[in-house]
Write a structure and sequence with these properties.
The complex is a heterodimer of chains A (393) and B (214).
Chain A lengths: L5 E2 L10 H10 L11 H21 L6 E4 L2 H12 L4 H6 L5 E5 L4 H12 L3 E5 L9 H7 L4 E5 L13 H10 L3 E5 L18 E5 L10 E5 L25 H39 L3 E4 L9 E6 L4 H10 L2 E2 L1 E2 L12 H5 L4 H5 L1 E5 L6 H20 L7
Parallel strand pairs in A: 1-11, 3-4, 3-5, 5-6, 6-7
Antiparallel strand pairs in A: 2-8, 7-8, 9-10, 10-13, 12-13
Helix pairs in contact in A: 1-8, 2-8, 3-5, 8-12, 9-12
Chain B lengths: L10 H8 L15 E7 L4 E10 L4 E10 L2 H14 L4 H5 L3 H8 L7 H21 L13 E3 L4 E2 H9 L5 H8 L9 H16 L13
Antiparallel strand pairs in B: 1-2, 2-3, 4-5
Helix pairs in contact in B: 1-2, 2-4, 2-5, 6-8
Classes of the chains: A alpha/beta (393), B alpha+beta (214).
Chain lengths: 393, 214
């Protein structure tokens, strides 16, 4: 057993960065309402604007293009609902376009929102992906037409880590006169992103995937882009997201991004190195494995792998008992009977999808963690395969 | 040392999961008198159950199993394997997922699907034994049809539930766990419920498909 729990589920969420924790503790006694005109209010307001400027700078945006929201899911819901709003004003703003395009590998908050919009009359198209999880650009070309209001393509996939060619996609989308949104929750703070260079209209961000607090996300909305608020009320966030600001969350988010600016580059190299060791180790020690996702164009710390003849929830729970935390694409972990929609979309068969685990590394992981994990995986897979009806090793 | 937070399932489940009993070993020569295989890899689980029968006493003298399945499937089949050794074929045939669940100290609702595999495979193994030993009259004659795909519940089990007292859709759900995942089978199950109540108890009983107002 290792001395401490080896957490390898950073795509689910991350521990707080020590600097974030410090900033949160300092902010904790500042209870002022940022809308108040007195000193307490002004201080809170100032702290929020500082964080907004930090985040904007980090992605190459202007501060007034950042809207703080309750989560990445809220930001994604807001964009889709905004571009499918049936009010006459909103429809005119998007030139009466009433269709959206998204992909088959999005996060559930995009998929479920899309389904709901479809029920309400919006035409929704789903882009195919290839076996590495890359969007089929020919399919996008086929689907783009003058009725498309929005194309939403996630930047980095949470399950397999595959990165999309965002610049190519946004160029195609804009040529067709539609707006472009990317859910970049898994990408921001892990790879360099500049919204102006990539020509993005909407981008979703979240704090808790990059060592910030939970319950705070943000939406980048390019100046001059139509946006219809989902939560109405006060004038907070320039009237685009009502509700008294989550000052603690925002300050923590700002600090997390500030730290990413300092640590991201070195961490990228370190995690990529770990991933290579992990991949090589697994491939050498364990027969009949399949790595999922794009081999190179992917997040540095994410490795998705399937083990023939071994069921994912069992792998996850045996690893948990060995002191290692990962996640799985198996149905058994989700409460439904279907395995990961992302893996199925890449054409992976049901057995390998049920037998997949996702290892997502982060800043506190060490080389020892990785070596221990390879050894533990070897033990666990051997044990499971011994009782497997399916594995014929 | 790692601080262990309360495990996902009960301690008994954990124990069976970590040290599954009666798993068929790789090089083991286990001459089975009956073999049963159930499940579907597409749904993420498959189960093989092997039994040895003491033909004089008509009891299961030993058993082995293998599975492609999750923690619940492993733990519940391990527990089941301990329960059936020394049990008469008739009693073993009647073991329900709930008996296994009781022994394990409860499983989360959405995991019960996984725990029904073991007893299904066991029944298949007993049927196999009957077939091989010219006791086909002991096999439940009617071909069973799966009504609830999520929980693998057949029309025969619905009939059994009715015989055991199910009179409403909700009682049927309680007893068989049918319709507790996707709910697609509700209409078909309600029809069968009515049919079996008609068949066995006459047609005067009203089928309750909605919960009472209060």
């Amino acid at each position: 057993m290792p001395e401490r729990y080896i957490y390898l589920d950073h795509n689910a969420t991350t521990p707080l960065h020590p600097e974030v924790k410090k900033a949160l503790l300092e902010m904790m006694d500042n209870y002022g309402n940022p809308s108040s005109l007195h000193q307490m209010g002004r201080l809170a307001h100032h702290k929020i604007e500082e964080a907004r400027a930090t985040i904007a700078r980090f992605i190459g945006a202007e501060p007034d293009e950042i809207i703080f929201m309750g989560s990445g899911s809220e930001a994604n819901n807001s964009v889709l609902n905004s571009l499918a709003c049936s009010s006459q004003v909103c429809r005119m703003e998007r030139k009466l376009r009433d269709a959206i395009i998204t992909t088959t590998i999005e996060h559930p908050c995009i998929i479920e929102s899309s389904k709901c919009l479809h029920e309400r009359g919006t035409k929704v198209h789903y882009l195919r992906v290839d076996e590495t999880g890359k969007v089929d650009l020919n399919h996008l070309k086929e689907l783009l037409n003058p009725n498309v209001a929005l194309v939403s393509v996630m930047y980095a996939n949470n399950e397999i880590g595959t990165l999309q060619d965002i610049k190519t996609i946004s160029t195609m989308v804009h040529a067709a006169g539609a707006f472009f949104h990317t859910d970049a929750v898994q990408a921001v703070g892990k790879i360099p992103i500049n919204v102006k260079e990539l020509d993005i209209d909407f981008m979703t961000l979240s704090a808790h995937k990059i060592y910030g607090p939970k319950g705070i996300g943000a939406l980048y909305v390019k100046r001059g882009t139509p946006f219809c608020p989902m939560i109405r009320g006060g004038h907070q966030e320039r009237g685009r997201r009502a509700g008294t600001e989550n000052t603690l969350g925002i300050v923590g988010f700002g600090k997390a991004v500030e730290m990413r600016a300092i640590e991201m580059e070195a961490e990228y190299q370190r995690l990529l190195h770990f991933k290579n060791i992990l991949k090589t180790g697994i491939a050498q020690q364990i027969p009949d494995v399949k790595f999922n996702g794009h081999p190179t164009d992917a997040l540095p710390g994410t490795l998705n792998v399937s083990f023939a003849g071994a069921e994912g929830e069992s792998i996850l729970l045996y690893l948990d008992l060995e002191g290692i935390g990962v996640s799985t694409g198996s149905a058994c972990a989700s409460g439904s009977l279907d395995p990961s929609h992302v893996l199925l979309a890449t054409g992976l068969g049901a057995e390998l999808a049920h037998g997949s685990i996702r290892i997502s590394m982060g800043r506190e992981n060490t080389l020892e963690d990785i070596e221990y994990t390879i050894a533990a995986l070897e033990r666990v897979i051997k044990k499971i395969r011994k009782m497997s009806t399916v594995y014929k090793g | 040392m790692v601080t262990q937070f309360e495990w996902l399932y009960s301690e008994i489940v954990k124990d069976h999961f970590m040290n599954p009993r009666n798993v068929l070993q790789e090089d083991e020569k286990f001459e089975a008198d009956g073999e049963g295989l159930t499940g579907n890899i597409k749904c993420g689980d498959e189960m093989l159950f092997l039994i040895k029968v003491d033909k004089e006493k008509n009891i299961i003298s030993d058993c082995r199993w293998k599975t492609y399945g999750c923690a619940s499937a492993i733990a519940s089949t391990s527990a089941l394997s301990e329960m059936v050794i020394g049990m008469s074929l008739d009693d073993a045939y009647r073991i329900s997922p709930r008996d296994v669940e009781k022994r394990l100290g409860s499983l989360p609702e959405h995991k019960i699907h996984c725990s029904v595999l073991g007893d299904k495979a066991l029944r298949a193994a007993i049927d196999d034994y009957y077939r091989k030993n010219g006791m086909t009259n002991k096999i439940t004659k009617k071909e069973a049809h799966i009504i609830c795909e999520c929980m693998n519940v057949t029309d025969q089990e619905i009939e059994n539930a009715v015989l055991e007292g199910a009179r409403s859709y909700y009682e049927l759900q309680e007893m068989t766990k049918l319709g507790t995942v996707c709910g697609k089978c509700k209409e078909k199950a309600t029809e069968l419920l009515k049919k079996y109540i008609d068949e066995h108890f006459g047609g005067d009983i009203k089928i309750i498909t909605n919960l009472p107002e209060n």
